[in-house]
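Exam revision sheet. Question 4 asks you to relate a sequence to its structure. Input first:
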Amino acid sequence: MGIVIAAEALLRAGVVWAGVYFTPLVWTGYIVFVDAIIASRTGVSPLTARRKEFLLLLPISVASWYVFEGVNLLLGNWSYANLPPGRAARWLGYAWSYATITPAIFVTAELVESFIGERFRGRRPLGVPPAAEAGFFYAGLALFAVTLVFPSPWLAPLPWVSVLLWFEGMNDRRGVGSFGEMFRGGDYSLFVSLLVSGAVCGLLWEAWNFRAATKWHYHVPYLPGVKLFEMPVLGFLGFPPFALECFLMYRLFRFLAPVKLATDVLGRPWSVPRRGGPC
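Answer key, structure tokens:
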């Protein structure tokens, strides 16, 4: 929390670089602070027990967000303001900010799970049939194709939905970790924890972005005048499913990486029974 307090103090004091890098500064402090709470509650945390995997998570977080930055080039749903003029300073801000996204989601989810996880484990299994997972995969492809062929700010929700469906279907087929697999085992703890995490982090993202000098602005046609901070209020509905996407993208990208460890950054095993299928 010391980093967050220091960043706030520097921002109030008018320190230019603190305003430029305020968002990644406070999120770095938040991640370290929440990780410490997790360690005190459970004895293990990403930074204490899974440090190597946590470091591997950082470039995956950057790569994951660039998927959405690419779509935004077509749709123009947000833009950045008051960026530093130098290319190096600008790209430092991009990389640092994007590297905090998935870690923030994950440490928040792990903290939430430490409180409520047991309530959602060992529940009645939900059978997600192979046809449904294959349907998710192809539906994700179709929605993403619509976004590319008919780019419009009005289609803002489509790429987010398409990524969630496509990665869920792909991960389930490849046996690299999907929510369908968890549901079949009667484990809903991570799913619920990620939804809560997305809501919490979404509110903090927008609150801290509102105060920063270098920030993003939204250009979404849905109730644009009804905002909380910079975000049109309907946009907050996207943060919980975004957290699910972060997990699915992380699991698939790590599956493709050459370095293999026993568990992922959330302490979950990599070995998931593979399911065959067209995708």
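Marking note for examiners. The two ends are 44 Å apart (CA to CA).
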